[in-house]
Amino acid sequence: xxxxxxxxxxxxxxxxxxxxxxxxxxxxxxxxxxxxxxxxxxxxxxxxxxxxxxxxxxxxxxxxxxxxxxxxxxxxxxxxxxxxxxxxxxxxxxxxxxxxxxxxxxxxxxxxxxxxxxxxxxxxxxxxxxxxxxxxxxxxxxxxxxxxx
Length: 149
Description:
Elements: E1 9-17, H1 21-31, H2 36-45, H3 51-69, E2 76-94, E3 100-116, H4 126-132
Antiparallel strand pairs: 1-3, 2-3
Helix pairs in contact: 2-3
């Protein structure tokens, strides 16, 4: 049985994005729990290829919030962000002496859930922000090295 979503949760789902799961998770871990505007700034400045499809999903989820529920974009935070493994595309590359090698192109599914926090006045500070987020959230940095590719 599926959980019923609250009235202030808005989601966007990107499927079959041609990218490895660990590369997308590296970016997702940095934006989880942040405000909409802060997330867009972070994604524009990060040097990873995974940022663009995630940026589009965040933007799409915010547009869904404004159009479908009439919520303000300034009051949204990234409530849940998860990356799951998709199917692997397989191609054969011809090699010498009539042989062939398999080329595997992994895909992933990215789910972004934004939540309206206009009800919570004291959300602004980091200490208070942790009260409103689920227990499995990691607000601190995941320890990833920025120059790692």
